[in-house]
Specification:
Layout (H helix, E strand, L loop, with lengths): L5 H17 L5 H16 L3 H14 L5 H6 L20 H9 L9 H14 L4 H13 L4 H24 L2
Helix pairs in contact: 1-2, 2-3, 6-7, 7-8
Length: about 170
């Protein structure tokens, strides 16, 4: 049923007067619900399943919006504090593994090693700044000095970006 067609005009001629007659009673919501089901069912009856499902879900949530029901499920306690994730400290074996990367780093796997090192601070108790020191330390032991230049320029770029982000953050 399109808005510019005769069936919609007839639908409107029936729904609006009944709505205005029922607006001061408790029957106006059921009337609009039935009219909505008719409107969506006219276009495609399969969409009625979605509309009925949505209505039942809203009714089961006791009139709460879905966002509120999901944010505050039954038994929710607002005074709970999130727990901090405890991360392992960096041990000597891990540092030895990182130092040994200088034997395998090259242009082909440089990106993979950078990605690996940039994720370490999620799992180990180190700051992200240590990542740059490790990367430059690995590249200093390599004969190809272009990897060292690339790492130093990457560090400078990231440090400048971080300063800009801190300067312009709200």
């Amino acid at each position: 049923m399109l808005f510019h067609t005769w069936p919609f005009f007839l639908f409107l001629l029936i729904v609006l007067p009944v709505f205005f007659a029922l607006r001061k009673t408790r029957m106006w919501l059921p009337w609009l619900t039935v009219a909505s089901y008719f409107f969506y069912g006219w276009w495609n009856p399969y969409y009625l399943f979605l509309v009925v499902y949505s209505t039942v879900l809203d009714f089961c949530l006791d009139g709460q919006p879905l966002e509120t029901a999901l944010k505050h499920p039954p038994g929710y306690k607002a005074d709970l504090q999130p727990m901090m994730i405890e991360r392992e400290p960096v041990d000597d074996n891990f540092l030895t593994t990182i130092a040994s990367m200088k034997h395998v780093i090259n242009h082909a796997n440089y990106r993979d090693i950078v990605l690996f090192l940039s994720r370490v601070h999620f799992y180990k108790d180190v700051s992200l700044g240590v990542f740059f020191d490790w990367l430059i330390g690995i590249c200093e032991g390599v004969e190809d000095k272009s990897l060292l230049e690339k790492s130093v320029s990457f560090k400078e770029y990231m440090m400048n970006y971080r300063e800009l982000a801190q300067r312009f953050s709200l």
